[in-house]
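Ticket opened by: R.M.
Priority: normal
Category: complex prediction / small molecule

The reporter submitted a protein together with s-citryldethia Coenzyme A and asked that the result be attached to this ticket for the collaborator who will pick it up next week. Submitted input follows.
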Amino acid sequence: MEKNTLTITDNRTGKSYEIPITDGNIRTMDLRQIKLNADDFGVMGYDPAFLNTASCRSKITYIDGDKGILQYRGYPIEELAERCSFLEVAYLILNGELPTPKELDAWVDLVTHHRMLHETTKSFLEGFRYDAHPMTMLISTVAALSTVYHDARHIHDTETRRLNMVRLIAKMPSMAAYAYRHSLGFPYIYPDDLLTYTENFMTMLFKMVEPKYVAHPVLARALDILFILHADHEQNCSTNVMRSVGSSLADPFVCTAAAASALSGPLHGGANEEVLKMLDEIGTKASVPAFIEGIKAGKGKLMGFGHRVYKNYDPRARIIKRTAEEVFSVTGRNPKLDIALELERIALEDEYFVKRKLYPNVDFYSGLIYQAMGFKPEMFTVLFAIPRTVGWLAQWEELLLDSEQKIARPRQVFVGHALRHLPEVKEREHAPVGR
Ligand code: SDX
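Result attached by the on-call engineer:
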C-alpha cells in the first residue's frame, strides 16, 4: 500500500523521520522535529523569494506555468475574456461562481452606485505636485479612503467587509481618473451611473468640453478584456503583500494601498511602463538585434519577458496580442508594434531566452494598446491596479476566512555576529562596514 509520506534520514544523527504528504506537499513545520539534540531549534526550510514555498491553500486562481494555463475558479481565461464582462468575472472571483442574470444585474447596480468619491479626495489630490506620478497618487488616495470609512476596521463583520470591498472596486477607476486629470491640470469629471464600468472610466478620464463623451465600443470592450486578464494571478508579489498586511487585521484600504505599492515596482506591474520606455530606446526594428545582444551581455532585462511561474507563453499575452489588432483597427496601428513583434520573433528563437524559458508576459503588449488608446505610460500600472483590486480583495477575504491563517511572521537564518560586548569609544578601531 503506497504511503503518503516522506522518510527523511538525518545523517548527522542517523535518525529517520516520517513526514506526511498532503496534496503532494509537506508542511514545513513538520521539519522542526529534525533536531541534533533536545535544545536544537530544529530544521527550517530556507527559501529566499519563496521560489518553492506555498503560503496558503487557495481556490481562486489556478496557473500551470509549464503549459501556459490560467483559470479563475476553474474557468479558462480564454473563455472568460471572450464571453464575459469584467464585473461578471469580478463576481466569479469574489464569490466562486458565475452570477445568474438577476445576480449580475444586482451586482452591477451595487458597484455602479459606489463610484462617487468623498469631496475631500479632491483637496487631498490637490496636495500633489502637477508632475506627481499617477500610480503614487493612486496608492496614497487608496490609503486615504481609510480615513473616510471608519467602519473599515470591522473586517470580521461580513456585511461591512463586503461593503468596503465594493467601495474599493467601484472607486478605483474614479480615483485613477482623478489622479490622471490632476496630472494634466484638467477639472475632475463626476461618475455617470448610466454608463458601464469601463465606459464610465473612459468618460472620467477623457471628457472635455463636449456635452457627452462617448467611449468607442471597441475600445471600451478592449479595456474590459484587459481588466479581465489582469484581475487575479494567484500568489504574485503584490497579492503576497495583500495577504501579509491583511494577516495583521489591517483594514482593506491600507492593505490595497500596500499591494498597489508592490505592483508599482518595475519587475512587477510597473513593467508595462518599462516596456514602452524600452521600445522607445530601441527606436527602430533594425536596432533590435543589437539590443538583444546587449541584454544577453547582461545590460538589463528584456522588459515584458519572463515570469516566475510561466515557463511557456503567458496565455494573457496571447489574448492581448489579439486584442491589440482590434484596437489598432480603430486607433490606427501603433508603430512600436513592429519593434515588439521583431523583439518577440528574435527572442523566441535565441538560445539565451529559450534556455531560460523566457516568453512574453502580460506586460509585453498591454502598453502598446494603452498608448494607442491615448493613455500616457505613467498610467499603465494604474490600469493594472484597477482590475487587480478584485483579485487582491478576493485573496484577502480568503485569508481572513481561512482558519489555518494567522499573522505572517517568517523566520530567518541568522548569519551575523555571535555575542560580543560593547568596547569604549576610544578603544574602537575602524572596521570595514559589513551590511
Ligand atoms: C508581472 O508573479 C506574477 O504572477 C506577476 C504577474 C501578475 O499577473 O501578477 O504575472 C505580473 O509582474 C509579470 C512580470 C513583469 N515583469 C517584467 O516583465 C520584468 C522583466 N522580467 C524579469 O525581471 C523576470 O523575468 C521576472 C521578475 C518576471 C521573474 O524573475 P525570476 O522568476 O526571479 O527569474 P530570474 O530573475 O531568476 O531569472 C532567471 C534567469 C536569470 O538569468 P541567469 O542568472 O540564470 O543567467 O533568466 C534571466 C535572469 O537574468 N531573466 C531575464 C529576464 N527574466 C529573467 N533575462 C533577460 N530579460 C528578462 N526579462
